[in-house]
Amino acid sequence: MTSMEKVKYLIIGNSAGGIGAAEAIREVDNKGSVAIVSDETYPAYSRPLISEYLDDGYSLERMLYRPADFYAKNNIKTLFGEKVTQLNARGHTLKLESGKSIGWEKLLLATGGTPIILKIPGTDLEGVFTFNKLDDARAIDEFLKRYIKKIRAVVIGGGLIGASVTEALLKRNVTVTIVEMKDRVLNTILDEETSAVVAKALEEAGVEILTDRTAVRIDSYFPGEVSGVTLDNDRSISCEMVIIAVGVQPRLDLVVKSGLKVNRGIIVDRHMATSAPDVYACGDVAEAFDFIYGENRLTPIWPNAYTGGRTAGRNMAGITEEYPGGTAMNAVKYYGLKLVSAGLVVPPDDSYEVIRETHDDIYRKVILKDGKLAGLVFAGDIEMSGIIYNLMKDGIDVSEFKETLVSDNFGLTSLPDEVRKSRLEPPPEKYISVVTSIEEPEEVVVEE
Known about the structure:
Layout: E1 4-12, H1 16-28, E2 34-38, H2 50-56, H3 60-63, H4 70-73, E3 76-80, E4 84-88, E5 93-96, E6 101-109, E7 113-115, E8 128-129, H5 134-145, E9 152-156, H6 160-171, E10 175-180, H7 192-204, E11 208-211, E12 215-219, E13 228-231, E14 236-238, E15 241-244, E16 248-250, E17 266-267, E18 279-281, E19 286-290, E20 295-298, H8 302-316, E21 329-334, E22 337-343, E23 353-359, E24 362-369, E25 372-379, H9 385-393, H10 417-424
Helix pairs in contact: 1-8, 2-5, 2-6
């Protein structure tokens, strides 16, 4: 690109949301110029697989979200390894750290989230890491290769990120202690029962879990190197490395002075449009419609980012389309345990109905409000969770067959005829390419 080239569609961010938008744009407009800017140097890859890279040496080729020739085949210009330093939403221009300036007609902000860094002494020491992208996994991998002896790690944060990196570290023969400020691990995506199951599996794998505790200092006996972590109860834990995994927050640095309406994230309407003309946002950076709460919320998970990106892309290309809405949804597999949760995992008050079934290693729970599903938690046998999630997403009244939802023999045949027929209808052609694997965990979450 020249120092001030114009592009019709400009996408900042090269993950699920950005790719979804690019694909949707090209379905509508195969002529208009499209460019993707990313501060990472890689083609789009599946971020949930960074733990596989760390524990099993997954190659980048195996992690790619789309084939390596995706950009060339779709005539998409790429500016990888480029950081946007200034956004002029009113003037339809932006500047890159390299000095380049780009003018655009339609802009998508799919900038994702950035790890929350604790404001405690020692976070700048060698041996302190976050775990949000491939470069983080590579940095940890290089650090581990320096040690012949078994080393110790403290993972600060017991959410999805913390649990994922812990499993990877265990496979690398690292001794791990988890420090969690809340009273249980995975408290944002699991209820007490399933959280306890995961905690037991972690402890049986040799992990020490310290709940209701916070780190107040990362210690250094040798200049510049990690030697331990001090907790709020004055306990000191010796270690050679620390992973800060307390969550991520929307990456809002670009929009601070742009005039866009922002709450916790960038506020968008049902078309994924921001308050600025011709500017859209999706994914972890955007507050978009949550169909469980009936309002805009941060729902930073991979499928929501992709669907929001598609909605944004079609609207950018001139096709009026509403975002169907998303909600919290996580499918994870830790230590042989399969777990799925979506929507509410703990009812906020007595107006909700809870139906559960537990036997052997199977746990199923659904939460209802006024006859409609508001949440689910499944562990062990998760095969039918997809059907139940779709019933929840579509707002189906399940009052007549609610008890069967958690039964061992639940399936499509358990549904009333009119509901079953709607489940069997083929999806609209434009959504056929959207595939979400129940086995692929999403590691990006926002933790309070």
